[in-house]
Structures are given as structure tokens and as C-alpha cells.
Description:
By secondary structure, the chain is an alpha+beta fold.
Amino acid sequence: xxQNDWLAGRFEASRxxxxxxxxxxxxxxxxxxxxxxxxxxxxAGGGAGDVANLDGWLTTIVARVCLDMLxxxxxxxxxxxxVEEATAAAGPEQEAVLADSVGLALLVVLxxxxxxxxxxxxxxxxxxxxxxxxxxxxxxSPTAARQLASRARRxxxxxxxxxxxxxARQREVAAAYLAAxxxxxxxxxxxxxxxxxxxxxxxxxxxxxxxxxxxxxxxVARAAALGASGRxxxxxxxxxxxxxxxxxxxxxxxALVLAFxxxxxxxxxxxxxxxxxxxxxxxxxxxx
Length: 288
């Protein structure tokens, strides 16, 4: 009984960190809590008394649970509604706060990685585990685990399509658009939209199921202010095909992308993409 009480106390003390590990691997608060609970079940029956590094042991148990969940997720096609329901069940405000703390774009990019790549990147780059332990979790050699993390890192960082100075200006414009849309600030939107701006939204992104094209700053600004009201808490900046854009990802799963054309300091075109096949072809990376 004393051994069980000791382990339970240590596990509870480690729960916030284990939850953070699981959230970064899974991108979903409800799934992260499920993973931590499953890890406790495994740890309680796993003979912790002989473990020299209990924190590392618990982390590897959570990582194995998450890897199993990621592999199961990849083997089936998940419906967007299920993502929305899971987010609502976990609490949208709490989910949004966690996503902001990690970086929404990072969660989205991590979700495009193979399960073992995601686990290797999170464990090494975000929590500093050595590749020997990561190899044990993923069933690979330390060298192979290092390669997994390296491939994931390249995907996360991506490659900007424009030089640094221009990229910084484009980032400012994209950030200003997101802030203005969230606040419903038509004046601020008009200041960063080209007078002849064109917005095209694919059929999946529109409630009517019919593609929409809008022309002119006034029409696009009104649509941006209205469209951001329900989803803005799940929106963040990202590199979209090498240029600053916006991703919307409830529950850490990509649902919609805004790809901007920003020649200088105003937006001349906005492409709204929600079709799953088209989203799969978008090159996404973290915008530093």
C-alpha cells in the first residue's frame, strides 16, 4: 500500500508535465487527458520500485501511449465534426489558451508529421529526452531516432519564399489582418486591403457549399469581420506555401487556411481553403 501511495503521489506531481507532453504530441486536450490516464494505469502495474529515473520512465510511458493513439488516428479518416465535438467537450477556452501557449501553427505542422517523427521531435526538441530513450519509445536505434527528429525539424521550420525583410513586412500585414478580423475593425481591415483585392473561398469553406468570389476592399473587409467571429479563437499565423498566412485549427486539427498575396504592404488576394484534399497539398510551417 505504501508503494502504491508513493507512486500515486509522484504521478500526481508529474501530471502537469505529462499532460504537456501528451498535448504537444496529440494536439487535443481531451486526448491528452485520456493518454495521461492510460499512462497511470500502465505505470501502476509496471513495477516502479526498481526504476532509477521515475520522471523519465513516466514520460516514456506517456509517449508510448501517445504513439499508439497517433498511429490509430492515422489509420482512420477523422470527421471534422468529431474534432469540433472533442474541443467543445474539453472546453474551448482552455483549449485555445493551451494552443496559444504551444503555438497553433506548430500544432498544425506537427499534425502533418508521421507519428514517430512527431514523437521524436516533441520528446527531443521540446522536452530534451536523449535519443537513446526516444529510440526505445519508437522502436528504433538512437541514430534512427535522431534522423526522425531532424526530418520533423525541417518540416516545422519550412522555407520562406521571400527574403527576410519582405517576409517581416508580410508578417506584419498578416498579423494586422488577423487582429482586425478578430476585433471586427473594418477601418483597420480597409487599411491593409488593396482597393482591388480579390477573395476566393472554396466550396467547403462556405456554409452554402458554393464557391464564393468577392472583389473590392469593402466587400472583403465585411466578410472578414463576419467570418472571424466564430473561429478566431482557433486562428494563428503560419507560413502558408512559404508566405505568411493564417491557419484555423480547432482541437489542433487543421480546418481552414487563408493564403495571402502581399506584394508590399497591402493584401491583393486571399485564398480560403477548407477542402481536405486541397489542405493536404498546402505546404505549412511555423512562422518565426
